[in-house]
């Protein structure tokens, strides 16, 4: 079987059914009707001749079904044959129809359905009750490498348990974890275990933004550099044009989705054939048509044996309920811990909220107006004035989200902390929906002596701005679609969201 998956393959007219391997796996499961599978196994064995071959010294025997000589049979004879193997009559008829009455392919389809049905009924997701008591704090120590928190240790143990399950026995799966729970560090700790077992490990870490890519590279370097035989020369950022000889020396490669297609060019084919481990950060983007093709090609590289997806939001415009994403990772979700669950079990700190708008419905209604292109509010105001009507609605909204009002909220919050003799939280991140809003807000803060900066698509050296904010050069960082996912900022103390979301 291919990495332990419960299915069989057809190759040039010969049906390859790893019955022996499937039998061993399913018989160890408490969820299987043993009599049913024994019937399938026995009847198929009797109906077809088998021969043995050793795939590798470490693998178990594989039974390969040899296609019998072509023989014309009636539909009823084929149905009778499949029923004698233990298959349901209705499903057998459907399989024969779908397989153009080729009995070997029908057997392949039916046994795939049976075995994958067992696999899907298993529960490989870590239970919330098993982690509700865990701390997310990292243990204090003097070294620069990471030591797992209680939560991460619990998840790492669970990963090992799932991968050793006889009905899984592969390393493809998905981590759904809320922002700030340490997905990147968790992946580094998991890869560390892999590195101890596989000295020829070659990791490709894929993301969709430079900020996330560079942040992940920094963390992996911090954890691995100088340990397990890894040096700084083993890390690189992949971009088209990088020397193939340099790439061949690297073991930890960080790349954008957009550039990863170049792995399949003749220049980098030798490197691609050596890749063993792949991590997809913000994995929900992989369901988009262009990225899903890339995902399929990467997973089919000859030596890939580990595929880990990580996301805080397993949904996408192309995949409303996350079904497609789960299927891409073989229906294995190691952890399902979205922010709602994480908050409910106490994994997030207490948060003080200040509502600029009065209620959710009001925010959504104003949001719809604000997101209309072409200055909808301006046109609405103009139309109302022409009709001699009041414009209090739009004026109320505009006054509340005006830069000076947002700045005054920031100042008032600092004063309230000071009056209660609490530590002031000066590091602030603010999320807005347009470049003009970001620049106006920046000017408002700077005019009152509060050092602020903005990051958006028109800012060239974004990394330098991040560095200045992290090291105290700015007190306020204003973002337009730059920090929505994957960027870690422990220095941030409070946050403002002036873009309206559902």
Question: Quick gist of this model?
Answer:
This protein is an alpha/beta fold and 502 residues long.
Keywords:
single chain; four-stranded parallel sheet; alpha/beta; 502 residues; 13% strand; disordered N terminus; 20 helices
Task: Give your account of this protein's structure.
Helices cover 42% and strands 13% of the residues. It has 20 helices and 15 strands.
How big a fraction of the residues is strand? 5-15%
Average of the residue pLDDT scores? 75
In order across it, which strands form the biggest sheet? 7-8-6-9-10-5-11
Tally of alpha and pi helices: 20
Largest sheet: 7 strands, parallel
Total count of strands: 15
Shape: globular
| CA-based gyration radius | 28 Å
Please bin the fraction of helical residues: 40-55%
Spans with pLDDT under 50 lasting ≥5 residues? Answer: 1-20, 46-71, 357-374
Structural class: alpha/beta
Distance between the termini: 45 Å
Write the layout of secondary structure elements.
Layout: E1 9-11, E2 14-16, H1 19-27, H2 34-47, E3 50-53, E4 62-65, H3 75-84, H4 89-98, H5 103-120, H6 150-164, E5 171-177, H7 183-197, E6 203-207, H8 210-224, E7 235-238, H9 244-248, E8 252-256, H10 257-260, H11 269-272, E9 277-281, H12 289-299, E10 306-311, H13 323-328, E11 333-337, H14 339-344, H15 360-371, H16 376-386, H17 392-400, H18 403-419, E12 428-431, H19 435-447, E13 452-455, H20 462-470, E14 476-479, E15 494-497
Parallel strand pairs: 5-10, 5-11, 6-8, 6-9, 7-8, 9-10, 12-14, 12-15, 13-14
Antiparallel strand pairs: 1-2, 3-4
Helix pairs in contact: 1-2, 3-4, 4-5, 7-8, 18-19
